[in-house]
Amino acid sequence: MFCVIQRIQKKKPDGHGAAKELLVDTDVYIVDGEEIMVYAYQYGEERFERPILDAYKISIHHSYRENGKVKKKQWAICTMSYYDVVEYSVEDKIIHSELEAKVSEMGISKGELYKMIYDKLNPLEEAIRAEYEQTDEYKVHQEHMTILRTHRNVRDEFEKLYGKGTYNRIYDVHGTLRNEEYLKKVMAAKKASEEYTRRSQEESQKRFKEQFKNGWSSYSTASSSNYNDDEKKMLHEIYRMASKKFHPDVSGDDGSKMKFLTKLKEQWEL
């Protein structure tokens, strides 16, 4: 069993090829009563002609003997034009609703089928692609793809700074400034937002410092003991006697009195 790729000639050329121009387009939206213009893009109507009529009929052949005679059987897989080869894969051109029955009749898996096809198709595809990449159509199409990729990347970076949906209101697909007034507006809004954030952070830090200072002062005053050794002995005795009275097991309360007494002990530095 083997794959055969037969070159044939189509009667008509393929449809028009890639567009020759990438043009600026505009969309207008009404948001909250305000008319908003957004810069988009479209391809021009003029397209490259595709004069090459070559096409490639792909089929699987099987030779076998039956009753001493050589017999042949073949299965048509698909036909790909010259331009199909550079733009699509075999999987794109196969009629998949018929494929299951064909591979079952062949007695092979889909993987085995595709391997047979690509072993034969790959060298042909490489030659066609190398030839096609020398055409003006390919070069212009690649230029358009580069412009669109750059547009997407620059737009995404811009909108990280100024917000979603801002870039296309200011620049077109080629990066040309179209709405300087709105650019100034979004830049001013960002600057105001950054200033507000900066002031908020400064105020927050100021409040924290004041609270910390006040809290440390209170703690320092409370924890600084002015009692001499004799007074501390008396306070210790007071604590010992009070703790016996206010212990939750004795007083039967929720322990709040004992907690307060413990706090006093810390403040007295006992």
Describe, in plain words, how this protein is organized in 3D:
The chain is α+β, with helices and mostly antiparallel strands. It has nine helices and five strands; from the N terminus they run E-E-E-E-E-H-H-H-H-H-H-H-H-H. The strands form two sheets. Strands 1-4-5 form a three-stranded antiparallel beta sheet. Helix 7 (229-246) runs antiparallel to helix 9. It is elongated, with a radius of gyration of 41 Å. The protein starts with a strand and ends with a helix. Residues 219-224 have low confidence and may be disordered.
Mean pLDDT: 89
**Span of the ends, CA to CA:** 99 Å
Number of strands: 5
Q: Which structural class fits the helix and strand makeup?
A: alpha+beta
Report the biggest beta sheet as strand number plus sense, adding barrel if it closes: 3 strands, antiparallel
Percent of residues in helices: 55-70%
Count of the domains: 3
Sequence stretches where pLDDT stays below 50 over 5 or more residues: 219-224
Note the total helix count.
9
Order of helices and strands: EEEEEHHHHHHHHH
